[in-house]
């Protein structure tokens, strides 16, 4: 494979994020006592520049590095979502890290390296790029999960995440090897062409796809590969949890969409029953176990698992040509809704959190509606959006997912989705009832960044619902020549 300057220009935003992370490391090393706002300010500047370049190139299509990367409407959408998520992470992290005595510049450099891995996944057109990008995404997250060292829970979270993540990466890589053995290529388009022409050992192709589903299922916290999620979410610093909940899920689903829609449509008949079962199990387990939680971070962890089940619902119809655009567009809209609502809810959690894991129980939210009405109203909007109640973007996301599932003819899975949504209303509305129906004297930290983030994302959750149909149409047009 050869490459030239044109290849680097094609993926300039991603290259910029990687290079900027290296610059931050140099700033940290050579600045003896950097100002507290210097490194986060530089991080935000780098992401803003990358975001502007990405936005200006939206709609352009190109391949790079011998076809191993494909820049198109899908990668542009994912990249802008990730860059926006990175900027929100900086906003909610700044005062939180200072308060928890975790303010170290390496935090932001690790975050940028992880974002660059996620961006590479969005443009991956080769199985080796998928694997390398997932590792680039994951390794910084392992360190960030343990960032609160020497706190035992944070170290335990980092170790659990690392061990299970390494195990999942082994499954993924073995799956890639089997697919290569069956098709003699790692190119997604090449795998599809070889499968269409007929391979000598189709069982290798099927086993490879299954093992890759295991590896990617871990990244998106789908059942039965979800075991790490509650402990890691609870033990990690909450700002890391917020970033992980959105970024790792967006990266994992970007890989799932790319790999299965581009490379494996010919074996969808064998894969779809597995996806159906995974989606149904993820919905049931995530929502049922969330009911038993008394810790808000663990409840949101199981909530994140259940939302992975909803996105998997859309992917079940991936093998049908007529539903393919709806599947991808519904996935993107749901990821956007989840990212916006998730960051807002974690901002509220950080506002009430105290040191040593205190302030994270449901009881700590008593009286919030009376004492801090704006924060409580924002949290209520997020809980309603997670439930799927209009007029919130979460309702629009679920609507498009259910439409894709029903158009694919999977009525049974849609019924499971509806029933588990009703179950989720119990624990989401429990937060609202606690805030408004119980008296208490909650204490929050005077962090205007967290309050503004919560209020702004709550407002965006409602306003974007109004424009959800144009947003869906725009996403569909961006994907027109991709899948």
Summarize this, please?
The protein is built from 20 helices and two strands. The protein is mainly alpha-helical. Strand 1 (62-64) and strand 2 (69-71) form a beta hairpin.
Q: What is the chain-wise order of helices and strands?
A: HHHEEHHHHHHHHHHHHHHHHH
Q: What class, by secondary structure content?
A: mainly alpha
Globular, elongated, flat, extended or rod-shaped: what is the shape?
A: globular
How many H/I helical runs? 20
Which residues form runs of ≥5 with pLDDT under 50? none
Q: Characterize the biggest β-sheet.
A: 2 strands, antiparallel
Strand content: under 5%
Mean pLDDT: 89
Order of adjacent strands in the largest pleated sheet: 1-2
Distance between the termini: 25 Å
Which bin fits the share of residues in helices? over 70%
Instruction: Give Rg in angstroms.
Output: 21 Å
Tell how many strands the DSSP assignment holds: 2
Structural description of this entry:
It is a single chain. The protein has helices at 5-10, 12-30, 38-56, 73-99, 106-122, 127-145, 152-183, 188-197, 202-219, 229-235, 238-263, 268-291, 296-315, 324-352, 368-371, 373-387, 393-407, 411-437, 448-466, 468-478; strands at 62-64, 69-71. By secondary structure, the protein is an all-alpha fold. The chain is globular, with a radius of gyration of 21 Å.
């Amino acid at each position: 494979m050869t490459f030239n300057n044109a290849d680097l220009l094609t993926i300039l935003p991603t290259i910029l994020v990687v290079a900027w992370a290296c610059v931050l490391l140099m700033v940290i090393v050579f600045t003896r006592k950097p100002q507290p706002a210097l490194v986060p300010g530089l991080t935000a500047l780098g992401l803003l520049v990358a975001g502007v370049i990405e936005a200006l190139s939206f709609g352009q299509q190109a391949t790079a590095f011998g076809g191993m990367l494909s820049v198109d409407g899908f990668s542009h959408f994912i990249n802008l979502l990730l860059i926006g998520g990175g900027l929100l992470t900086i906003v909610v992290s700044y005062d939180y890290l200072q308060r928890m005595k975790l303010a170290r510049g390496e935090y932001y450099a690790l975050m940028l390296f992880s974002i660059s891995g996620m961006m590479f996944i969005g443009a991956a057109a080769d199985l080796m790029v998928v694997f390398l990008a997932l590792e680039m995404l994951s390794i910084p997250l392992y360190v960030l999960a343990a960032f609160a060292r020497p706190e035992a829970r944070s170290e335990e979270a980092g170790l659990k995440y690392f061990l299970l993540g390494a195990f999942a990466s082994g499954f993924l890589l073995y799956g890639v090897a089997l697919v290569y053995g069956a098709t003699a290529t790692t190119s997604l388009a090449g795998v599809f062409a070889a499968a269409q022409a007929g391979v000598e050992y189709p069982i290798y192709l099927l086993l490879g796809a299954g093992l890759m589903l295991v590896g990617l299922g871990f990244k998106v916290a789908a059942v039965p590969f979800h075991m790490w999620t509650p402990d890691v979410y609870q033990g990690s610093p909450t700002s890391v949890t917020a970033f992980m909940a959105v970024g790792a899920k967006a990266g994992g689903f970007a890989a799932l969409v790319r790999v299965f829609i581009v490379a494996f449509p010919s074996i969808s008949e064998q894969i779809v029953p597995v996806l159906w079962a995974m989606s149904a199990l993820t919905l049931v387990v995530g929502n049922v176990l969330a009911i038993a939680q008394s810790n808000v971070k663990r409840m949101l962890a199981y909530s994140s698992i259940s939302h992975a089940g909803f996105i998997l619902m859309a992917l079940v119809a991936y093998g049908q040509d007529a539903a393919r655009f709806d599947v991808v567009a519904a996935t993107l809209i749901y990821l956007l809704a989840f990212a916006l609502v998730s960051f807002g809810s974690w901002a509220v959690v950080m506002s009430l959190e105290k040191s040593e894991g205190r302030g994270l129980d449901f009881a700590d939210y008593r009286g919030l509606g009376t004492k801090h009405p704006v924060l409580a109203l924002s949290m209520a909007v997020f809980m309603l959006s997670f439930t799927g109640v209009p007029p919130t973007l979460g309702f629009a996301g679920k609507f498009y997912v259910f439409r894709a599932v029903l158009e694919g003819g999977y009525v049974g899975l849609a019924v499971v989705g509806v029933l588990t949504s009703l179950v989720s209303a119990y624990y989401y509305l429990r937060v609202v009832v606690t805030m408004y129906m119980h008296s208490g004297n909650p204490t929050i930290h005077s962090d205007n960044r967290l309050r503004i983030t919560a209020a702004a994302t709550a407002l965006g959750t409602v306003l974007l619902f109004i424009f959800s149909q144009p947003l869906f149409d725009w996403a569909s047009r961006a994907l027109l020549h991709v899948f």
